Amino acid sequence: GLVQSGLVSDMIVSPLALVAFISEVMTLHPGDVILTGTPPGVGPLKSGDEVCVDIEGIGRLCNPVVG
To answer: Alpha carbon 65 to chain centroid distance?
Structure first.
């Protein structure tokens, strides 16, 4: 079942500010992924877990955790 859920509006630093900051120190290319961490209250991932990200207007990306 669902372990955690979070919204962009809950982030301490906005995605726009993150992209601007990162772009100052490196070139971002199409397809690059910026990992921003997690909302509070979540434990570590373990083998067999599945991580899914839903982006409105783009779709869903799910990946299994292996280890």
So the answer is: 15
Query: For 39, which DSSP code?
Result: -
- pTM > 0.85: no
Q: Is residue 51 part of a domain?
A: yes
The average pLDDT across 47-52 equals: 91
Distance CA 36, CA 38 (A): 7
Total domains in the fold of the chain: 1
Q: Is residue 15 part of a domain?
A: yes
The set of residues, in sequence order, having a beta carbon less than 8 Å from that of 22 and lying 6+ positions away, is 28, 34
